[in-house]
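Here is a typical sample entry:
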Amino acid sequence: MFHSDTQTLIDTWTALGEAAVIPDRTAFDPTRLGLLLPRAFMAVRRGDGAEFRLAGSWIETFHGDRLAGTAWLPWWSETSRPLVADAITRTFREARPVVIVAGAGADEAALEITLTPLRGPDGAADRILGLYAPTTTGSRDLVDVDSLTARVSVGVGEVRRAPLSLATINGRQVA
């Protein structure tokens, strides 16, 4: 069971429809998130990572910096980056939300960070709508956090894309 804010983003993204594809960014109305907007962000996928396009005021206070145009992976501990990069890849590959359970600060205050995939203006699936949901009282008040620790990532709902399968062409196996 996820934090209610996490579930709100998942429900909002799911309601965008287009069950067989990743929804277009223009299908998402930011006002539907209401009071969650300060903890929401929009990013662009860049290689294995992502770059912030917009970040809510709570996220910028949390990290202690203006984030537009900055890479997201450097905000994670070195050991967490492969898991986070995998979560970014999974949200697009599986066309569904992925939730990262993370710790922050000296006390490892708990957060759920949700990633949902969207299509950009050129039709490419390269936008991430995300949300930080503090799940403990201490995590709501953190400021200037310079490193997050990813504990686990979980895909939410059914995989919307067909899984890869092997086929044989002229005796060669291909995906």
Q: What stands out?
A: The beta strands are 40-46, 49-55, 98-104, 109-119, 125-134, 148-155, 167-169, 172-174.
